[in-house]
Amino acid sequence: MERTPLIVGNWKMNGTITQTLLLINELLQMAQNLKDIDIVVAPPFTSLYSASIALQDSAIGLAAQNMFWEHEGAYTGEISGDFLKDIGCTYVLIGHSERRQYFGETDESVNKKIQMALGLELIPIFCLGETEAQREKKQTFDVIQEQLKIGLKNLHMNDFKNFVIAYEPIWAIGTGKNATSEQVEEVHSFIRNTLEKSFDAPMANGIRILYGGSVKPKNARELKQTKNVDGLLVGGASLKADQFIEIIKC
Ligand code: 13P
């Protein structure tokens, strides 16, 4: 099955509204003639609305970096998926390792957020991955299996029509350490096989699995050859328009 490549720029906690709009304008100019690829950017919450207006009628999609699992109410500081829909987001990152590491997110809370996103027809980009210690102890597959099992609990076949998974080994995020194409392929095919066992082959073959962790133009080129890599989730390098476009062009 043909899976359209998807490249997502996660801008993390970077950029005022002015900086976000500058970057978006550069990207819009550089990305004008790119075809057969989906491009999505994820600016911080405060820039989302301005970004949404700037991206209107463009081919670049908009993601939020997080959301809460309730529609509204007394949850000080939280943002609901309804609000994200309201301002034109189509995707939402869920369970990024930085959320798990610094803000106490668990597989269970990730599952609640995924269910809420799906109910609102926001496309979840479900992030998972192992720590360096887990990899050294050869627990990578067990960890990924558990994250999938709990993260996807109570989901049904129909939920995966618009669904993205992002494998981000924590030891490769922001560290400059690259997972090799072999390491990435091993985990991506494990994820696809696990999905096939839990659901079915067409579902598993249809889902896009992205890789993230110190992606730069050089390793993007290598990862392109990797069978089960359907795109990339790019952090640092997506903050520079020329680097991000170079990665996309790979
Ligand atoms: P870096 O590309 O900066 O390593 O970040 C990866 C990431 O966390 C994307 O979500």
Give a description of the structure.
- This protein is of the alpha/beta class and 250 residues long.
- It has a single domain (6-249), classed as Alpha-Beta Barrel (TIM Barrel), CATH 3.20.20.70.
- It has helices spanning 17-30, 45-55, 81-86, 97-103, 107-119, 132-136, 140-151, 181-198, 201-206, 217-224, 241-249; strands spanning 6-10, 38-42, 60-64, 91-94, 123-128, 164-167, 208-212, 231-234.
- An eight-stranded parallel β-barrel has the order 1-2-3-4-5-6-7-8, surrounded by five helices.
- α1 (17-30) runs parallel beside α2 (45-55) and α1 (17-30) packs parallel to α11.
- The structure holds 1,3-dihydroxyacetonephosphate.
- Residues 10, 96, 168, 173-174, 212-215, 233-237 line the site of 1,3-dihydroxyacetonephosphate.
Task: Please give the structural blueprint.
Layout: E1 6-10, H1 17-30, E2 38-42, H2 45-55, E3 60-64, H3 81-86, E4 91-94, H4 97-103, H5 107-119, E5 123-128, H6 132-136, H7 140-151, E6 164-167, H8 181-198, H9 201-206, E7 208-212, H10 217-224, E8 231-234, H11 241-249
Parallel strand pairs: 1-2, 1-8, 2-3, 3-4, 4-5, 5-6, 6-7, 7-8
Helix pairs in contact: 1-2, 1-11, 5-7, 7-8, 10-11
Comma- or semicolon-separated keywords:
TIM Barrel, alpha/beta, binds 1,3-dihydroxyacetonephosphate, 8 strands, eight-stranded parallel beta barrel, 250 residues
